[in-house]
# Entry
Amino acid sequence: MTWETVAGVLGGLLLLYAVLLALLWGYARRHPETVTMKDALRLLPDLLRLIRRLIADSTVAVGVRVRLVLLLVYLLSPIDLVPDFVPVIGYADDVVIVALVLRSVVARAGEDAVRRHWPGTPEGLQLILKLAGLGTAR
# Structure
């Protein structure tokens, strides 16, 4: 492998990363109401308990539990796609990844499983369901 090939691959990865950052920045600017930093910090303990409970539930499909374990590892990892100290988009990558996994979990395990295991307030559940793409809670 020549240095031109390595430089081309690294350049392509950097370009892809820059595009991802631009998309996250645009999303965070257009949708500031999705989840504020205050809401995210308030929901984090309940979200972690929800993930732990869903992982422990043997009625939830193995594929869903694997996704949740990977999400938990990502959230607890000090390494992020975008460092959290970057303004506007520092936490946007975490929110987008959580939303994608939650949508997947709700689609596969069902909204009732999320409701059954939710440890927090009804308002927090409503925000989690909104984040999962279900609009408002019942």
